[in-house]
Give the backbone structure.
Amino acid sequence: MRSRGAQAPRDYFALTGVRAPVPLLDFNVDEAKARPYRPFRWEYHQTMSLKSMDPDRWIELESTYRERIKQRMRLYDEHGKKIIDWLPGSEAACQELMEMAIQFVCARYPRQFQIDASGIFRNMILGVSSDTRTVHPLLFLLQHIPEDFLITQEDKRTGLYAFRAGVSCSAVGWSMATKIGLHLHEIHDPVPDYKEKMEVHARLFCHILRIILLRFFSSMKVDKPIQRGSWGLEVGQPLFLQEDDPDFRRPLPDLKLSDINLRVDWQTLRRLPHSRAIVFNFKALFTPIEEFRDEPYIPRLLLKILREGKPSFMQYKAFCHVEPKVMPALITWAKEQEEKGWVPADWKERTLAEDPFFPGWEEKR
């Protein structure tokens, strides 16, 4: 990577129109807890379920920070281009993304991160420094930011957006190597119902999907970043797990309820102001499913989704390998919450007003 020299840093808060985050002056990463995201919706549909991004929370740090950075670097050492890759023409977008991330974390966590006029970035949590003039931006993100970033750019020939660069350590069932270079509608091939619809209405469906994605991405504003959450139930805390792995969602005869976790990938989506690339970033958060017991409405809402959700989407979420343990527990906890008066017996399951959280979630942190 070539040095950008000593040019003045860009003010991305001004360029994007997204305000700077409120500084956390007393932040202690070892005591910080992730917010308890529970992005459960009913009636359940596989939609983007988009919300405006909270400017304070584009990149969030919590107590797993040190462990996650080590894990990410180890995964890159083991898997190389399955974790980080970039195509020609993406260099400016990668550089811009790194600069935006640096400006954000230095503003949000001023006692943990600093950058000087020469471009030396100091990470006081890890006790390391990086020369941002020489390190590749994606390697920098791997080494300091506990989130994954996928960069999409417009294909000038077609007007469609394609996946051009990224760092992704939090991938279950896919990797950079299987997706880079693809247009967005091609990336969605494995999504349930997609193949079926393609077979029945192949050309029409493909044409409609292209139009939807083209309109959505072409109209996305720099000052309107958005966020959403996806979820699944996993055994353990698999960060990077591929289909050829012998442990890939196989039934376990000795499975215990305490082995099962909710995995939430909390995602943001935003357009970069100069390169005009659109960036996804996401972070995997794991919560023991046993915590649902004292979270009002969550057991009953999740039970409704797992019982009555469209079979193809439940299969996509690979629920069957944990079903024997999860379903009885949810039934028990839902009944307990009704008996305690936390949830009315006649409550009709629906997306909670606190979505993506639950009533009283602030007290749990």
In short: The CA atoms of residues 8 and 117 lie 8 Å apart. The first strand starts at residue 51 and ends at 52. Strands lie at 51-52, 84-86, 113-115, 120-123, 128-131, 148-154, 161-167, 226-235, 260-271, 278-288. Residues 1-5, 190-209 have pLDDT under 50 and may be disordered.
